[in-house]
Design goal:
Radius of gyration: 20 Å
CATH class of the largest domain: Alpha Beta
Structural class: alpha/beta
CATH topology of the largest domain: D-Maltodextrin-Binding Protein, domain 2
Largest sheet: 8 strands, mixed
Distance between the termini: 32 Å
CATH architecture of the largest domain: 3-Layer(aba) Sandwich
Helix content: 25-40%
Strand content: 15-25%
Length: 284
């Protein structure tokens, strides 16, 4: 993923890719408060998801939202740790939990999910296409001694390891290809050339930015292949810390029933008939 450090002042009305963005005005009858500076994982910005949800927040509260850091987790964690952001959101991982453990943030909460796909060659040597159960699909891949590509995306590997543990399975070492990178373009090209199965994110696989080299979707919609995003608000600087108080309001808004209902339909029909992201049952 290309890293970008940029600044936007929201509200903006960002329509889903590839339609672009259009500006809106903040309702004047809402009280104003301190601007919330946010560090946001790149995929939420690329799809217009973050822009859409925070525009709704600003329309209701009059509180502006500013994105001060965008990119992968190791890039956006730094500004938050240095106190340059009031709120951060990324996949649940050691990086964001360590920010809380080290005293930089409070109360990590899940608020959305994205999903992964199990993809493979058109000839489908393990005969798994359409299988709704990812564990059953992996069992068939192992039994068929079909090739499987493992890459270095920590989140994807965590999902894979959980699925293997659930089925008490082990990948066949003679049929397993290890790729020490996590760039989608490279891993999809390698999987296609090796006629191997692998696990990838649904959005990068379907959005057309990266050639899939003839690979096809084999397994989708298994809830165990979804990864949660977590939101964390920075530690308070005192009772008059308006920015932190505003950030807490935004975090609560992300988890609200209203926002979860919006997430459930956001982006449906853009890549396929499914929403781009998924709500969480733990939302309050």
């Amino acid at each position: 993923m290309t890293t970008r450090i940029a600044r936007w002042i929201i509200p903006i009305s960002c329509v889903l890719l590839p339609l672009g963005c259009a500006e809106t005005s903040t309702p004047s009858n809402h009280p104003t408060s301190a601007t919330i500076r946010c560090a946001v994982i790149g995929g939420m910005m690329d799809t217009g998801f973050w822009q859409g949800v925070t525009e709704r927040f600003t329309q209701q509260t009059g509180i502006a939202v500013e994105v001060v850091a965008v990119g992968p987790k190791h890039i956006i964690a730094g500004p938050f740790e240095r106190g340059e952001a009031d709120l951060i959101t990324m996949h649940a991982c050691d990086t964001i939990i360590n920010l809380v453990a080290d005293g930089h943030g409070i109360d990590p909460q899940p608020w959305a999910r994205n999903d992964l796909l199990l993809v493979g060659p058109k000839n489908d040597p393990a005969q798994i296409k359409g299988e709704p159960d990812a564990v059953a699909a992996l069992r068939k891949i192992i039994h068929a001694k079909a090739k499987f590509l493992v890459h270095q995306s920590l989140g994807t590997n965590e999902v894979l390891h959980d699925l293997l543990a659930k089925g008490e399975l082990e990948l066949n070492p003679d049929a397993t290809i290890s790729l020490p990178i996590d760039r989608h373009r490279t891993l999809l090209k390698r999987a296609a050339s090796e006629q191997a199965y692998t696990i990838v994110g649904r959005i990068p696989f379907l959005n057309g930015k990266i050639p899939n080299d003839g690979l096809e979707i084999m397994v989708r919609d298994d809830p165990r292949m979804r990864r949660p995003y977590v939101v964390v608000v920075r530690t308070s600087r005192g009772s008059t810390d308006l920015a932190q108080q505003s950030a807490l309001k935004l975090a609560a808004f992300l988890k609200s029933a209203e926002s979860q209902a919006w997430i459930k339909t956001f982006g449906a029909g853009v890549l396929d008939d499914r929403p781009l992201f998924f709500p969480v049952s733990a939302a309050k």
